[in-house]
Amino acid sequence: MKGIHMENDSRIKLSVIIPCYNEENNIRECLESVTWADEILVVDSFSTDKTLDIARKYTDRILQHEYINSAAQKNWTIPQASHDWVLIVDSDERVTPELCNEITTLLAQAPLKDGYWIRRKNFLFGKEIRHSGWGADSVLRLFRKDLGRYQEKRVHAEVELKNTEMLGGHLEHLSVSSLTDWVNKINRYSSWKARDKYEQGTTAPILHMVLRPPVRFIKDYILRLGLLDGWRGFLISALSAFAELVMAGKVVQLTIESQKKSRETR
Length: 266
Fold this sequence. Notes:
By secondary structure, the protein is an alpha/beta fold. The chain has helices at residues 27-32, 51-55, 70-77, 97-108, 179-199, 205-223, 230-264; strands at 14-20, 39-44, 61-64, 85-88, 93-95, 115-124, 127-128, 137-144, 164-174. It has 2 domains: 14-174, Spore Coat Polysaccharide Biosynthesis Protein SpsA, Chain A; 179-264. The chain is built from 7 helices and 9 strands; from the N terminus they run E-H-E-H-E-H-E-E-H-E-E-E-E-H-H-H. Strands 1, 2, 3, 4, 5, 6, 7, 8 and 9 form a 9-stranded mixed beta sheet that branches. Helix 5 crosses helix 7 (230-264).
């Protein structure tokens, strides 16, 4: 294992898990931010760029696994970690020095909780977003390996633990690299979310298609003060509304396709 280790061998050891796919532009800085960990475990979805070449400079533990969705990928990887505590860090995130110090101090003692929430500072096109629904973002990423598993959801799944606490440090999150990347992400996530909604038996999808987009825009731009984030806040609010429209439209499409198959089998 390559990395910087603390001298106190009595501390609880930590495995950092980094999922990735074609992240050659992001993963180096991500890996640099976690070299202090006892183990860096990269799980790759068969990248075709230089992601793995970069990762091999930081760790010998690289696994490859077919990507179904984020939760499934992480749940497959967590049991493979060598140590009892894991920290999940996405390739577009960086662990700040303050968060590093807080985690190492926590693990040098006996953690009183089973998991810890971490706030994220989200950046868009070089600037931190303080409002627009992105400013109050937190994720449960540090937890006991034997207890932490993600919800069985295709998108926006979270680790299900009750005995948790919020840390003071932050992850830095470079949300999207380009508008093209953003729109592609909306397309992927809306498909997964639509499938989840459809399987849960969502009713009145056409009504949702009409109402959800404007409500989401007003919520992010006005109620969540997206206007204070300037043009970036407007863009976030508009694309969040667009994502709601696309997701609801896909639920409608799934409903129509299901009804058609049902008629054909009668």
